[in-house]
Specification:
By secondary structure, this protein is of the alpha+beta class. Helices cover about 35% and strands about 25% of the residues. Among the domains are: about 55 residues, Uridine Diphospho-n-acetylenolpyruvylglucosamine Reductase, domain 2 (2-Layer Sandwich); about 100 residues, CO dehydrogenase flavoprotein, C-terminal domain (Enolase-like, domain 1). The strands form four sheets. A five-stranded antiparallel sheet has the order 4-5-10-6-7. A four-stranded antiparallel sheet has the order 11-12-13-14, sandwiched between helices. It starts with a strand and ends with a helix.
Length: about 270
Amino acid sequence: MYSFAYTSAVSIEAAVSAVKADQEARFLSGGMSLLPSMKLRLAGPSQLVDVMRIDALRGVSDLGNTVRIGATTTHYDVSQSPILRERVPAIAELAAGIGDVQVRYRGTIGGSVANNDPAADYPAGVLALNAKLITDRRSISADDFFLGLFDTALEPSELLTAVEIQIPRRAAYVKFANLASRFAVVGVFLADFGTMIRIAVTGAGKGVFRLKEHEAALAKSFDPGAVASLSVPSTHFTSDVHATAEYRAHLTAELTKRAVSACLKN
């Protein structure tokens, strides 16, 4: 690992100022992706600006039509939040299935979303729940936030401060997980808002995306049969040691039907 400076920020303003002053600096929250990358010398920031002690970035708040989740809220706290368990239980269940206990105690929703790993769980939930990504300077819709492989709309020195998710009438997340890492080989998050259906897929290999044809079909008839004849092109996916693109496409179609069935049981 390369040598680096370490700063523990006490406010959002201090954290952003530190990164603005050093173009090679990086924000640090749980460190579940950044620190392994540094150990492998895939990343070499000159300074880590730790944001975990900033109280304004932590916690879950019920805002009525939305729920606000602070960026440094851990996976464990998301999974255990009484507000989320009542208002959006699917996102709490998603968090409970991330990694192992150690990862859930350290990893954060903001770190995962900002990293945008193509096999991460949160991007599917955030996109399907029509979220707003709140930063130190603006609000970004989930549809505009995820740009591609490990790429987001965040600008240099821009700090993700919170995720605001909309409250669906019902929702479900169904994942076919890698048994070793618990990352998604394919994961499908379905959210029914009554006036619209949103379905997001993770694990594709190219980044999270929506199934708009399936959304339209379910808006007419919310039943597994409505999407039974619909397929997902394998061109949306990549092949790797865990699964071929064709297998991922098959899984996506099957998991979408299971997500509909899970919603109907809620």
